[in-house]
Amino acid sequence: xxxxxxxxxxxxxxxxxxxxxxxxxTPARSGDDLAALSASSAQERVAAQxxxxxxxxxxxxxxxxxxxESDEVTRLIFDQHDVAAFAPxxxxxxxxxxxxLLSDGVTGETLEALAPGLTPEMAAAVSKIMRL
Length: 132
Known about the structure:
The chain is built from 9 helices and 2 strands; from the N terminus they run E-E-H-H-H-H-H-H-H-H-H. By secondary structure, it is mostly helical. Strand 1 (about 5-10) and strand 2 (about 10-15) form a beta hairpin. The two termini are about 25 Å apart. The mean pLDDT is about 90.
């Protein structure tokens, strides 16, 4: 994908790539501010979080943050990804996954079975919107 965007009122916020979207959706932290990674305003952060909430979980499998060819950790994550374990949530967006996680039907056993199907980026994405 060539970028992400979300409108807040009449302003459209654009995020160049998945890495930028995740960075801008992160709650404000002074270290991120110093590194110029954080959202420039609360409105931009909300726009990033809303865009992230609508993102299909499968995007994290289609668009690795670090190219598979150049990173051993990325290769390990993708090579060990369990498609069958991911299947029960593969149709969800990040926001839907948040709601699913907070539902009464999710148990420790459910999460244990799902874990091999999730990537760290999926877990990070849902944690960025968990307070919303």
